[in-house]
C-alpha cells in the first residue's frame, strides 16, 4: 500500500471509529464543504452498516424535514471552526427538540474538522440556552482524497478570512498540513515557491515550523475522547 492509500485508509478508520460509537440510526448535518467526505473516504458498504438515514446541510435550516428525524436519536454535525454557523446549528436542534414525539434524549454530537476555535466554544455557550448535553469531537482531518493522486484541503473561504476577517487560522492549518505531507513521505520539501500573499504566509509558517520541530513529527492524530461531554 503506497503512502496516499495508507492515508485514505487511516482517515476511513478514524471516521468509522467516530460513527461506531453511536449505535443505531444516524442523521448527519454537514458544513457545505465537508459532505464530500462520505463519498471519498467511506464506501457504500460502510455507509449502509452505519445506518445513516438522512443527510442535511447546516446552512439550509429551512430545508430540513424534522419529521424525517423523529425516530433518530443520533444527530451528528460535521463542522468547520466557523463561529458564525453555531447559531444555525442551535436553531436546528431547537426544531428537532420541539418536534419530538417522545421524551427520549437525543445524542447531539459536534464534530469539528480539523479543530474547534475559541470563538466556536463561546458561541456554543451563548446559544445553548436549554443546556442540552453535547458531545464534542475534534477530527484532525487534513486531506480529502478526491482522485487517486489528488488530495484537497477543501477549505473554501481563505481569501475572505485573510483580507476581510483578519483570520489566519486556516492558513496556519495549511502549513500544518504541509508538515504532515513531509511526515507522510519521510522528508522535507527541497524547494518551496509561493505566489501571492496567502501562499507566502503559509510558506513562511512552514519554514518556521520546520525549524522548530523538524519535518517528521506531524503524524495524523486520533480524535479526542468522544465520551467527554461539553456542558
TrEMBL record:
<dbReference type="GO" id="GO:0016192">
    <property type="term" value="P:vesicle-mediated transport"/>
</dbReference>
<dbReference type="InterPro" id="IPR043154">
    <property type="entry name" value="Sec-1-like_dom1"/>
</dbReference>
<dbReference type="InterPro" id="IPR027482">
    <property type="entry name" value="Sec1-like_dom2"/>
</dbReference>
<protein>
    <submittedName>
        <fullName>Uncharacterized protein</fullName>
    </submittedName>
</protein>
<comment type="similarity">
    <text>Belongs to the STXBP/unc-18/SEC1 family.</text>
</comment>
<dbReference type="InterPro" id="IPR001619">
    <property type="entry name" value="Sec1-like"/>
</dbReference>
<dbReference type="InterPro" id="IPR036045">
    <property type="entry name" value="Sec1-like_sf"/>
</dbReference>
<dbReference type="Pfam" id="PF00995">
    <property type="entry name" value="Sec1"/>
</dbReference>
Amino acid at each position: 500500500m503506497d503512502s496516499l492509500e495508507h492515508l485514505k485508509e487511516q482517515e476511513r478508520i478514524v471516521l468509522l471509529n467516530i460513527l461506531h460509537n453511536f449505535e443505531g440510526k444516524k442523521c448527519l448535518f454537514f458544513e457545505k464543504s465537508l459532505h464530500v467526505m462520505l463519498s471519498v473516504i467511506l464506501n457504500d458498504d460502510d455507509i449502509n452498516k452505519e445506518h445513516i438515514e438522512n443527510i442535511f446541510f447546516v446552512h439550509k435550516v429551512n430545508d430540513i424535514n424534522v419529521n424525517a428525524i423523529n425516530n433518530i436519536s443520533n444527530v451528528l454535525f460535521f463542522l468547520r471552526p466557523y463561529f458564525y454557523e453555531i447559531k444555525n446549528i442551535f436553531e436546528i436542534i431547537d426544531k428537532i427538540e420541539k418536534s419530538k414525539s417522545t421524551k427520549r434524549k437525543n445524542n447531539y454530537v459536534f464534530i469539528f474538522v480539523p479543530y474547534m476555535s475559541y470563538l466556536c466554544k463561546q458561541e456554543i455557550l451563548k446559544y445553548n440556552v436549554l443546556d442540552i448535553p453535547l458531545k464534542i469531537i475534534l477530527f484532525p482531518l487534513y486531506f480529502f482524497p478526491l482522485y487517486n493522486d489528488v488530495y484537497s484541503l477543501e477549505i473554501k473561504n481563505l481569501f475572505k478570512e485573510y483580507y476581510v476577517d483578519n483570520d489566519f487560522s486556516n492558513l496556519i492549518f495549511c502549513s500544518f498540513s504541509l508538515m504532515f505531507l513531509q511526515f507522510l513521505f519521510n522528508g522535507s520539501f527541497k524547494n518551496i515557491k509561493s505566489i501571492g500573499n496567502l501562499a507566502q504566509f503559509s510558506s513562511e509558517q512552514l519554514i518556521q515550523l520546520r525549524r522548530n520541530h523538524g519535518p517528521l513529527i506531524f503524524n495524523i492524530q486520533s480524535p479526542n475522547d468522544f465520551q467527554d461531554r461539553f456542558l
